[in-house]
Amino acid sequence: MATKTKPTEEVKMHEILVVDERRCTGCEICESVCSMVHDGEFNPLNARIHRIRLEPIINATISCVSCFNPSCVSACPLGIITKNDETGVIKIDYNKCDGCGACVRFCEYGAITIHTKNKQAITCDLCESTEFDKPQCVEYCPKGAIFVREVDPSQDENRIITLGKIIKKGFPEPAEGEILN
Length: 181
Known about the structure:
- With 181 residues, the chain is an alpha+beta fold.
- It has a domain at 14-19 and 66-124: Alpha-Beta Plaits (2-Layer Sandwich).
- Helix content is 20%, strand content 18%.
- A hairpin with a 6-residue loop joins strand 6 and strand 7.
- The radius of gyration is 16 Å and the shape is globular.
- This is Ion-translocating oxidoreductase complex subunit B.
- Keywords: 4Fe-4S, Electron transport, Iron, Iron-sulfur, Metal-binding, Repeat, Transport.
- Residues 15-45, 54-86, 88-117 form the 4Fe-4S ferredoxin-type domain.
């Protein structure tokens, strides 16, 4: 059951990444760009966004969905994963993360992985930890398939339901002549 904050409270919407599967070709540029801006090298295994293919032709992405009550935060035995209440971004203290993987096992959406080199948890932070002021996967997606969308942080609902509502609202129509996936 969804709960909501008091109507008098001003709620700042949180942002998440959502893909328009009609546009996504599965090129994996989002993963390469993500790993480059975070780590300085092209290595999709260390991306904070992950392309998945649902055979035969549907491509989608997995990234942090800013859960109302993130299980990754409560699962961390060191207490070093936090959620920024203002932005909804999950923060990991890399000075203390030991890479135990509890957060990976408890994330219901598969949005946290372990970095292949430094063996620490990583997840999408909308490029807040980089020099850029917006997600670079959105900027560099050649098909314009990745969008930043807002979610109401006061809604305690399953994020699959939230994503369904966002997708149902739809995405901007492609430019004339643009070929969809």
